[in-house]
Amino acid sequence: MTTASHSGEEHLATVSYLPGAWAAPGVGSASTADTLVSEPSPTNSTDSNDSTESEESKGLSNKKTRRAENVSLAGLTRRNMSRWELEKLLRSRDLDDDAITNELDRLEGVGLIDDAALAETLVRTQHERKGLGRQSIISELRRRHIDQEIIDVAIEALDADDERERAFEIAEKRASQLSRYDKETAKRRLTSFMLRRGYSSAVVRDSVDHALGGSHPRGSSPGGPSGDGGGVRFR
């Protein structure tokens, strides 16, 4: 807006700013005072707060992720673990559900937890090293919360003849420690021992008879030609 002076020259009128508005920096002259810049609106302030909170939330999430990775790495370094076992370990560290699920999925994706592979390994090692029978191996797999379908597949790999052969070896070794008992007591003790190791009743009967000098041979069928009988001299 212009005004006329007594000399006839025109001058710009003084600008009065409305509440909540000011002149842009460097635009203080009356000639450009019409250029106004609004104060930061409440909406802009909220966006800034939201952005800060988002950054904090992202930082917290990353921290939980790293902690979950450290816990799982320490656990898997000690021994192979089923998914259930590792989940139990992570929960014991008070990690939230999202962090736990993401970590378990990540480890499964890269093959660091694999219940099927773990089941196969346990069937082999529990039988060959510990001399356990089928039922004890299944119990061990269930104790580690491996799915029954996976157990069924893994236990099929255990050959019946191999299981029987291993039972005979275990019975012979144990029978040698029972010579201080009479034969009936030794038989009762050896039968209980073999049953606790998870062998079937038929395999236990044959292995005990063989180990205590019975007639059943070590072969896959009683009376077969392959066995020579164990035999322990009792009191």
Structure characterization notes:
With 235 residues, the protein is mainly α. The protein is 56% helix and 5% strand. It is built from nine helices and four strands. It has helices spanning 42-78, 83-91, 97-109, 115-128, 134-143, 148-155, 160-175, 183-196, 201-211; strands at 2-4, 10-12, 21-23, 36-38. The strands form two sheets. A two-stranded antiparallel sheet has the order 1-2. Strands 3-4 form a two-stranded antiparallel ribbon. Strand 1 and strand 2 form a beta hairpin. Helix 4 packs across helix 6. The longest helix is centred in the N-terminal third of the chain and has 37 residues, at 42-78.
Low-confidence stretches: 26-38, 219-230
Number of helices: 9
**What coarse outline follows from CA principal-axis ratios?**
rod-shaped
As laid out across the biggest beta sheet, the strand order is 1-2
Spatial extent as radius of gyration: 40 Å
Strand content: 5-15%
State the end-to-end CA separation: 128 Å
Order of helices and strands: EEEEHHHHHHHHH
Largest sheet entry: 2 strands, antiparallel
Mean pLDDT: 81
Structural class: mainly alpha
Number of DSSP-assigned strands = 4
Helix percentage:
55-70%
Topology:
Elements: E1 2-4, E2 10-12, E3 21-23, E4 36-38, H1 42-78, H2 83-91, H3 97-109, H4 115-128, H5 134-143, H6 148-155, H7 160-175, H8 183-196, H9 201-211
Antiparallel strand pairs: 1-2, 3-4
Helix pairs in contact: 1-3, 2-3, 4-5, 4-6, 7-8, 7-9, 8-9
List keywords for this structure.
two-stranded antiparallel sheet, rod-shaped, single chain, mainly alpha
